[in-house]
Amino acid sequence: MNSTGDSAGLGSLDEIASSLQGYDPQALPALEVLKFLEQLVKPINETESVGIFQALGRVLACDVISPISVPAHDNSAMDGFAFDGSALMAGQPLALRVVGTALAGKAWQGSVEPGQCVKIMTGAIMPAGLDTVAPQELCQITGVQVLLPAGLLRAGDNRRFCGEDLMAGRPALQQGTVVSAAACGLLASLGLPQVQVMRRLKVAYFSTGDEILSLGQAPREGAVYDSNRYTVFGMLHNLGCEMIDMGVVRDEPALLQQAFVLAAQTADAIITSGGVSVGEADFTKAMMKKLGDVVFWKIAMRPGRPMAVGRLTQEGKSAVLFGLPGNPVAVMVTFLAFVKPALLRMMGSTQTAPLLMRARSQEVLRKKPGRTEYQRGIVSRNAQDELQVVSTGNQGSGVLSSMVQANGLIVLQHTQSSIQIGDWVDVLML
Fold first, then answer.
1. In whole angstroms, how far apart are CA 228 and each of 49, 77, 400?
2. What fold, for 356-429?
3. C-alpha dist (Å) from residue 166 to 71, 73, 155, 160
4. Which CATH number is 49-68+171-198's, of 3.40.30.10, 3.50.50.60, 3.90.105.10, 3.40.630.30?
5. For each of the chain's 430 residues, which pLDDT tens digit applies?
6. Domain 75-160 class?
């Protein structure tokens, strides 16, 4: 099993770095991080066939070719009366006589003469020779006589064409599409009971540090309960990954080696939190270097400056490594900014770039050029129906409660300076 999608054929991290202009691991702009990761990670190359209910959130492994046309016939877009649109005369009402009823699911077999029409239900096949539907609510109906007032319709109105939605033999969904609820319905509308998708990405994650407590352990001075594994779990769950929770690993070389080796053998990607900042214990960094090809960055961003990225290889299997900071908000920001796009790429998705919205700032946001800042914000709409955003206040990287309050991240780009009230800013919705 090739669990990382031809990772053996990728260049070294030094080779990737050499292709980036002005690469400096001690002051790396956020955009350069994304360029680096685009070259580091490749889609996994394993697929499986699943039922439509199981396809939700999965990534299509190939184009889905429509086996049928949708709709299969010209049909009515609403309840009303089908007739030959050539009978419409400018400025004149049209009188018609009903000679039958066309129901959905069964073709009407009669014939229609000039001055006649067929009562028709939404979705019913258009009778031969008829191309226009007069909505029932627009007509004056007296028994079998129908009067359509002048100027309300044009020939061809309210008719759906055969293949208007999907044409047989053409792609209905493209490879790399993440299957949404609408896509599930579309697949079912084609009569397809199963679809080929990329297998789930396996991601192992654990927290490091002697000061980290697992839930259920008694509090002790200087220690904090592990929140990072739970936020990482939530974000991975939303991506549809197969998760391998490896708990909390203490700062002991033997334990760290055991965790990294197991993760590299069983996962496509590894996410750790803690142990990559300046001044922290060197055990985690040393073990990463010992077991793989890893670089340590100081990213020009806030929060989340320190980060480690690379590959760990064990017994012929390779996993991409993301070593995230220890602060809870920094973990979430670096995941959303860098890890999520990389994992989506590994999953085979073509929708990897974060979608940024534009909103007007409701306050002054102080910033110096030279780094990208991700500030927690609350996005709403103003009286002009524009998006507007205000920060949650305290932007400390340990203030996890502000991430709960926020519904978006205000992304202040690398070259931007301070923002004034009313200025447009980028927002990454959460």
1. 33, 52, 10
2. Beta-clip (2.40.340)
3. 7, 12, 23, 12
4. 3.90.105.10
5. 333 344 434 578 999 999 898 899 999 999 999 999 999 999 999 999 999 999 999 999 999 999 999 999 999 999 999 999 999 999 999 999 999 999 999 899 999 999 999 999 999 999 999 999 999 999 999 999 999 999 999 999 999 999 999 999 999 999 999 999 999 999 999 999 999 999 999 999 999 988 988 899 999 998 899 999 999 999 999 999 999 999 999 999 999 999 999 999 999 999 999 988 766 556 888 899 999 999 999 999 999 999 999 999 988 899 999 999 999 999 999 999 999 999 999 999 998 888 899 999 999 999 999 999 999 999 999 999 999 999 998 888 778 899 999 999 999 999 999 999 999 999 999 9
6. mainly beta
Separation of alpha carbons 379 and 399, rounded Å: 19
Tell me the CATH architecture of domain 7-46+199-346. Answer: 3-Layer(aba) Sandwich (3.40)
Structure tokens that stand for 269 in this block? 């990607």
Tell me if 177 sits within 8 A of 60, measured CB to CB: yes
